[in-house]
Write a structure and sequence with these properties.
The protein is an alpha/beta fold. The protein is 35% helix and 20% strand. Helix 10 runs parallel beside helix 15. The protein binds ligand BES, manganese (II) ion and zinc ion (ZN). Zinc ion binds next to strand 10.
């Protein structure tokens, strides 16, 4: 159930619990804290720490740590809101006294982060559960006042969290259910609800358009492919931003078959597509000034009797031929078509999101996405947007002298490198071949960040994370044509 969030000056007396932010400094100096109790609980006001105190009169008090007061940004407030909501357990109505520790001028972005953290902490995917789990917090009253700017920031955060939840739902839906057809239907539904333009190419349209990468990956599948295009059009657009998302609805690896272990989370291989669709779903509420166009190639990667064989050559939309030596390096093949199409529309900048390489998780783990691209200014813009959105990225190079490793003996390119190592970079170099000269482009490899496999923590629960929705929305909101 979606969380209802409201703003109030004071704590309503009827709430079931009050969540109070504690800074490291406050822990030492605030005379109102039950210091003995907190010390006995090992509470040190660190981020993610939350303890429930029922020793007073009135509602329970949940103390959540936010770390040092000096280092306090939206990220700490997002985590604190999530920790508070989780610690509240089955209490239905809670007050969040978190904004008090934030300087008044910094409260709007903190309020947005608060709403995101609180909403995402109650996210669950229960579609296939016969019995729903125990109820969680349903209503949050944010105290401290703060006026209109804080109110609309809360609203914005709640809407963005809706987009993230949609992306999570799409990722969490099993690959046998969320076929390319269904993914396209979901995109059409979003477009209708949000008043966006949408077109869906079916298999014939895709063949007609010469999307040889998408067709080649689809060849082993019983499910037809789809190519989805979305468009958000503001009144007098300032600039055009293109989003591209990898939409492999299930990645078995094709004939270069994955292991059973390696396949277990592969319904997650459309997380880039999910981020794009999730972000589009909230664009009208966010109201950016730029036009946003979205490109989502969708297919699964299966092993049918006529599947693409290692050694086969595919012809991508832009005419480049690719020798497929490993059918499990399929994401780059469908993205090649999508980047070619995006290039034809001559946008001011492109960003793609893809669960592209296992190597990025080896390098950066599951909390930091890999960022590559062809334009330093655009990469700075993406980095800054991700930082403000509370999603972490780290840049990797695309060195020229690695390029020849993708040379093929029989075609223009091969889809895997001749040498070992640098798997994430090699995939980035491959994609770069399909981006038009002079178009600023950024590639986010989200293979590590799109999925959370551990116990619930902060705004994450097990399964799809919806990674990228927040960054995409922030990027559109603040888009400047890269110079
Ligand atoms: N979808 C996978 C990448 C992936 C791995 C995503 C783990 C999420 C978690 C991608 O299609 C793939 O199989 N990549 C190969 C590339 C290799 C064959 C060059 C990989 O990373 O092993
Ligand atoms: Mn693969
Ligand atoms: Zn894949």
């Amino acid at each position: 159930m979606p969380l209802s969030i409201e703003l109030s000056r004071d704590v309503p007396p009827a709430v079931d619990a009050v969540v109070v932010a504690v800074t490291a400094e406050g822990l030492d100096t605030d005379p109102g804290l039950p210091r003995g109790f907190l010390a006995a609980q090992g509470f040190e006001a660190k981020v993610d720490q939350a303890v429930v105190w029922t020793g007073g009169e009135g509602p329970a008090v949940i103390y959540v740590g936010v770390g040092a007061a000096g280092a306090l940004g939206p990220a700490a407030i997002r985590r604190a809101a999530a920790a508070g909501v989780r610690a509240a357990g089955r209490r239905a109505w809670i007050a969040l006294r978190l904004l008090e520790v934030v300087e008044p001028s910094a409260r709007p972005p903190a309020a947005q982060a608060l709403a995101e953290g609180a909403s995402l902490a109650v996210y669950r995917f229960e579609r296939f559960k016969s019995e729903p789990g125990p109820p969680s917090v349903q209503r949050v009253t944010v105290t401290g006042g703060g006026g209109k700017r804080v109110g609309s920031a809360l609203e914005l955060g709640a809407r963005i969290a809706d987009g993230v939840a949609l992306a999570r739902d799409l990722v969490n839906t099993p690959g046998g259910e969320l076929t390319p057809r269904l993914l396209a239907e979901a995109a059409v539904e979003v477009a209708e609800a949000a008043n966006l333009r949408v077109t869906v190419m079916d298999e014939d349209d895709i063949a007609e358009a010469g999307l040889g990468g998408l067709l080649g990956v689809n060849r082993g599948s019983a499910q037809p492919p789809r190519f989805i295009e979305l468009c958000y059009e503001p009144a007098r657009p300032r600039g055009v931003l293109a989003w591209v998302g990898k939409g492999i609805t299930f990645d078995a690896g094709g004939l270069s078959l994955k292991t059973s272990e390696g396949m277990m989370t592969m319904k997650n291989d459309m997380a880039g597509a999910a981020a794009v669709i999730g972000a589009f779903s909230v664009l009208p509420a966010v109201g950016p000034r730029c036009r946003v166009v979205g490109y989502v190639p969708a297919t699964d990667n299966m092993t049918g009797g006529d599947a693409t064989r290692p050694g086969d050559v595919l012809k991508i939309r832009n005419g480049t031929t690719v020798e497929v030596l490993n059918t499990d390096a399929e994401g780059r093949l469908i993205l090649a078509d999508a980047l070619s199409l995006a290039t034809e529309a001559a946008p001011d900048a492109i960003v793609d999101l893809a669960t592209l390489t296992g190597a990025v998780e080896v390098a950066l783990g599951s909390r930091i996405a890999g960022l590559m691209g062809n334009h330093p200014g655009w990469l700075d813009q993406v980095t800054a947007a991700a930082e403000r959105a509370g999603e972490r990225v780290w840049r990797l190079p695309l060195p020229d002298d690695y390029r020849p490793w993708l040379d093929s003996d029989v075609a223009d390119l091969r889809n895997i490198a001749k040498v070992k190592g640098a798997g994430t970079i090699i995939a980035g170099l491959f994609l770069q071949r399909f981006v038009g000269e002079g178009i600023p482009w950024a590639h986010l490899d989200i293979a590590g960040t799109a999925w959370w496999g551990e116990a619930p923590e902060g705004e994450f629960s097990r399964g799809g994370t919806g990674w990228g929705v927040r960054t995409l929305v922030e990027l559109a909101r603040t888009f400047r044509r890269p110079s």
